[in-house]
Amino acid sequence: MSERPAPDLTGFTVPGTGRGILDVFSYRYLLRLLVRKGILTRYHGTALGWAWSYVKPAAQFLIYFLVMGVILRFNRGIEMFPIYLFSGVVVINLFNEAFGNATRSIVNNRALVKKIYLPRELFPIADVFIAFVHFLPQLSILLIVCLIVGWAPTAVQLAGVLLALLIVLIAALGLGLLFGAMNVSFRDAQNLVELILMFSTWTSPVLYSSEMVRAIAPPWVYDLYMLNPLTSAVELFHSAFWFPTTDQTAARPENLWLFAGLGFAAALIMLVVGQLVFRKFEGRFAQDL
């Protein structure tokens, strides 16, 4: 009795044996579809629609300004405090939305994950893109306000904005891959993510200045504080949007670009670790979902 020939599997890919994030470039059309779907359905069925992209950050800014600026009087110690506050808020909002959505991306797309094979990294990457699109209305408000008060940034400061965005998006994607994979098997990972998102605002110089930390903390604690990728990203936004609107006597952190470079390196490490963990768990996604 002759043996049956082995099936030809050259057209198939076993989950976890691909090139990870690099495979996403071969699925650019599907990535565009996922991003487009996420953008169009974000406020589907709501009365205000895309106006919520302006209302939500405006309400958040108002609360922070009233509490930190008016009640606690931080606006007296920081010149142009509204711009200082909002330029930090938009950075944290981008990180929180990108990280939070990427963490839930695999579970939210369980129907596709269980039925067909495609690079699972498509889902968290698409959610990071969607978060960036929703960040643009907030950035436009910041730009308009800065232009009204005479904003005149340098080329180096504008380059800092691009570096800050890279730091935030890469860090959010890396952590999203890490916790998104864990969230499939251990749903309480989502609770840990919510704690991280809660602390992200308070562990970065958004509601206060980094000089306040430097004044009360030992030098090594301050250095650890500045090594936080979100801290350097927020300070780069302050340098680009807030500092040019002041009288140029405002203090900027020393070695900001050094800390920004280290923050970028830390974000890349997060991405590598997140990808490795994601690939380790990827083969169990369909089973655990």
What's the structural blueprint in terms of helices and strands?
Layout: H1 28-41, H2 52-71, H3 81-108, H4 110-115, H5 122-148, H6 155-185, H7 189-202, H8 210-216, H9 219-227, H10 229-242, H11 256-282, H12 285-288
Helix pairs in contact: 1-5, 2-3, 3-5, 3-6, 3-7, 3-10, 5-6, 6-10, 6-11, 10-11
Transmembrane segments: 58-75, 81-102, 122-152, 158-180, 192-210, 256-278
InterPro entries: ABC2_TM, ABC2_TM_bact-type
GO molecular function: ABC-type transporter activity
Short synopsis of the structure:
The chain has 289 residues and is mostly helical. The protein is 70% helix and 0% strand.
Describe what this molecule looks like in 3D.
The protein is mostly helical and 289 residues long. Helix 3 (81-108) runs antiparallel to helix 7, helix 3 (81-108) crosses helix 10 and helix 10 (229-242) packs across helix 11 (256-282). It is built from twelve helices and no strands. The protein starts with 27 loop residues before the first helix and ends with a helix. The protein has one domain (20-39, 49-288). The model has no long low-confidence stretch (mean pLDDT 83).
